[in-house]
Amino acid sequence: MQMPSPNTAILARKAELAAKLSTVLPLDALIQDEAETRAYECDALTAYRCPPMLVVLPRTTQEVSDVLRVCHQMGVPVVPRGAGTSLAGGALPTADSVILGVARMNEVLETDYDNRVIRVQTGRTNLSVSGAVEEEDFFYAPDPSSQLACAIAGNIAMNSGGAHCLKYGVTTNNLMGVTLVMMDGTVVEIGGAHLDAGGLDLLGVICGSEGQLGVVTEATLRILRKPEGARPVLIGYDSNEVAGACVSDIIKAGVLPVAIEFMDRPCIEACEAFAKAGYPMCEALLIVEVEGSEAEIDHQLGLIIEIAKSHNPVELREAQDADEAGRIWLGRKSAFGAMGQINDYMCLDGTIPVTELPYVLRRIGELSKQYGLGVANVFHAGDGNMHPLILFDANKPGDLELCEDMGADILKLCVEVGGCLTGEHGVGVEKRDLMLHQYSPEDLEAQLKVKDVFDPQWLLNPAKVFPLSVTEGRRAVELSK
Amino acid sequence: MKKMMLQPKSETELVEMIAGAGGPLCIQSGGTRGFASDGEVLSTRGLSGVELYEPGALTMVARAGTPVAEIETLLAEQGQRLAFEPMDHRGLLGSDGEPTIGGVFAANVSGPRRIQCGAARDFLLGVRFVDGMGQVVKNGGRVMKNVTGYDLVKLMAGAHGTLGVLSEVSFKVLPMPEAAATVAVVGVDLAVAVQVMSAALGSPFDVTGAAYDPVERRAYVRIEGFAGSVDYRVGRLVADLARFGAVQQVDDSESLWRCIRDVSAFHGNAGDVWRISVKPSDAVELAEQLQAEALQFDWGGGLIWVLVPAGTDLRARIAVPGHATLMRAGAETRGRLGQFQAEPAPLAAISAELRAKFDPRGILNTGLMG
């Protein structure tokens, strides 16, 4: 993967930049030491690393504004960073960039149960937002797998989803307002505790813009009252096709579960070996979860089980108590860890129309044979968001490249059947060069125009999302040969 | 005098008409929603037809001029619906014509269920549009989760045609519930009603509507789902809301919410109609500031419909955060006050620059949104 070569003129002014930043930041908020900046050389896409020139860790919106103003004046690229859990390389630095981390901005600013909103600083972790309203039985709905660690700032940047977004939507559907600092230091307020902010839907385009339009320092989020209860059912099938048909029938029947998770045999085997959740060995497992009172859950699960039975399952296990529910989820929730224990893997994130599920799984199987790399599939079946995990050996020369090629083929397949490259992880650097498979140059040009408005000099996270060849004329930095 | 009308029959014709336009265009579809600018009318009504409907994937793709009625009929046959409950503006505005799906999304039209399931913009998955230079752009797709590149889909929803003219939309649909029921807390004033609605919306019972009629002095709460579940939750809510006043079950839930959705209380009344979006708990204070002839409340108090004498500058009376849209008024008032509230300076500058990028000639619904 190519990154722009660092701008030597900027590197030469490192001391000057640090001096200017030190006038607007407390001592401990500016990191210059190379041993310490190394901690910010990558995010969760660890295959690519590059220490930044400097790291700043502001505590207030004013400090963020001051930092951006200084960088803007000097023409220095800035890479915003939440908790650094991006699987797409969204927070990967370049050597001539400043990492702006919001991790120290983690306060709850206002909790308003009457209007069902919470306002937080965006360095706060996803799970701790729910934690802040738990005592009143409320929660924040989007639940990415990394929710223990990931920050709201990154959730907004990538428009993160999660297992329960079939019912509750993704970040953009739960974000009501932001404080946004633009690259020139201007602070703007968009939206708030009222629904449907006036004017153009700027909030909608900022969410998911991967830190390229501004730095979001505060967010107003919708909170919801917790359901009375939730219960999953585990359904096993001897073919992916039948499991896919079952998912489609559940949705058509008018039941709207909060989650429908799908695992194929390689994934079931790995999870079982790792977590010993008691999963049956079969070709495909579904975990379907519904919410409500005991009676409501019984009724919905009754309907789901009836549909499941019409497809002749090899296993059907309804959780009888919280302990059994926990075990049903245990394997699924440890899927990534389980795969990581047996192998290096690359996690993809393409989305497909649910109806294409059987075909896409069959094609992925064929690609797996063709490339000689194993693939385990675990994904959110209700909304077609797939997470194929391609297994490779990082120590074997050429294996990573082979894995990336195969990943690209799978993502192109997702686009071919009417889907997209990424459902919830974001483009980052990982899928940047595939964008022209989904969008025409004219489609991308329309997106670039939006960045031109927010960040005319292309200083914010400039080497992400779009193929470098497409952004070449706009970026301030030079490309390597 | 009736304006000339451009009515493309295909996206290609739409491109030609925009590229070849010699002056401002008034972008419309069914023309039922009361948003108009000066210029030659360009109607997308001729771009009609559902192109794809997959009930098992909860998605539909339709050309922008497809009538909402046609889409709702198709969905009903499969037991599905547009869950965000788009309003029909014809009764309120006295307009005629056929509401279209493109108009719904271009104006981000949502009804009472917006508080539970989201707005039109939350259901819009993908768009094709033609920008002010005649360039076709696509964004998003037809899958429910998509973070590939910038979300221009959201930007187009509610842009009222000022950034481009929608030619095709793909959107999410949801199953129609088996049953619906509404309870009313009767004899309550606005302050109590907001508390009632807040309590209901903050309950675990998945309320899909919370509205207040100050004439009837009734706060309404709607529950939908499987029949047994609706009965259960209605029972729990009746018990819980009894602390605020007498609670009754409403007989015809469906027609009640259609009236709330379409603001039937104001149909045929003289005067201007405004639509205000605020934090629900600000509704009480705001209602006093407004000095209105009549008010209707939806979205737990967060959406306020206001009837005032013609020509009133209602925005001058609002002292809480939020915004007010002028929905029904004479041409002079619309011109003087603007249908949309002016944005704070930095946001207005961003919006103006976005319009300049997508419509450099300034011909798409010029001046409508600023």
Automatic annotation (TrEMBL), chain A:
Residues 48-226 form the FAD-binding PCMH-type domain. PROSITE patterns: FAD_PCMH. Keywords: FAD, Flavoprotein, Oxidoreductase. Its cofactor is FAD. GO terms for molecular function: FAD binding; oxidoreductase activity. This is FAD-binding protein.
Automatic annotation (TrEMBL), chain B:
Residues 1-176 form the FAD-binding PCMH-type domain. It comes from the Bacteria. SUPFAM superfamilies: FAD-binding/transporter-associated domain-like, FAD-linked oxidases, C-terminal domain. Keywords: FAD, Flavoprotein. GO terms for molecular function: catalytic activity; FAD binding. InterPro entries: FAD-bd_PCMH, FAD-bd_PCMH-like_sf, FAD-bd_PCMH_sub2, FAD-linked_Oxase-like_C, Oxid_FAD_bind_N. This is FAD-binding protein. It comes from Parasedimentitalea huanghaiensis. The lineage of its organism: Bacteria, Pseudomonadati, Pseudomonadota, Alphaproteobacteria, Rhodobacterales.
